[in-house]
Amino acid sequence: MSTLKTLFTLAIVLVSHLSFSGQKEEEAMPTIMLESTEVDTSLLNSEAKYIFTFRNLGMDGKAGSTQYSIDGVTHIGALADGKTLTVITTPGNHIFQFYYSMNYYEVYTDSLSISAGYVSNYSIYLQEAEMPVLTQKPIIYLYPEVDTAVSVKLKVKGKLTFTYPEYKDGWKFKASPNGDLTFGENTYNYLFWESSQRRVLHSNTYASGYIVKGENATSFLKGKLTEAGLNSKEQTDFITYWAPRLAQNDLNYVRFDFNESCNQYAELDIEPKPDHIYRIYMLWHPTKLTHEPKPQDIPKVNREGFTVIEWGGQELPNYMN
Fold first, then answer.
1. Of 20, 30, 148, 292, which has fewest CB within 10 angstroms of its CB?
2. Which one-letter DSSP state was computed for residue 163?
3. Beta carbons within 8 Å of 167's beta carbon, 6+ residues apart
4. pLDDT in tens, 271-293
5. Comparing 28 with 133, which gets the higher pLDDT?
6. Prediction pTM value
């Protein structure tokens, strides 16, 4: 079972008694349901049979397989008709774990009891790992070398939920070297947007990052943002938004995405083209884990010429421990 445990140590584990995100607990569908138990005369006295039918794979009639374990021993099982796994084992109590693909949560069972010569039929309902996540407060600073008419368009990987100033078909404004953005008679410090997107959280999402005590949130963020080369105003905007939220928790998992990696949230189309664009997004959630993931290398802002800086982040659901 080491392969699965290693792969998903930090991934979401959806167990049979846990309700699905967004559903009321009393309305949640269990991940595994016993449908029937009956005598199977084809079995020996020392045998028992489990039949697991994956009800929501959409694989009817197609060849497929799943990785599963029984009592901690890992196997690969063929799915008959793309949805049915048959396991012949000994009578007694057995614990199963099912892993279909990175796009679905694992399913763990409680102890499943079976008698000699019997077959038990179970339905398995896999929950997709894709979830709606709010991309929060991405803000964009622009620093041209001289007053410049600028156009900014977003290619958001999701749906815009709020912008300020109003986005319409893009932003068009005058940018000044001190960071002022002038829309007609109004001046702003930055462009603001938020969006809701659906994303799949893989195990490699958590391969690197930091475990941060809530009481150390401010000093941690200040240290990383200083290393990144953000100025005092940019740091203040970032820290006053995120640090109070981290500080509410005993421990937090924190990691950063930089530059091209931030295209998973949105792509920026800026005219005239800046000399340098620096993007930093923070992905985080409360955690109970105390081990230290691999620290990240923090790239530094290059402020030579027309420079654009953007920061934002995503708070993941609290049950990700």
1. 292
2. E
3. 154, 160, 193
4. 999 999 999 999 888 888 777 78
5. 133
6. 0.62
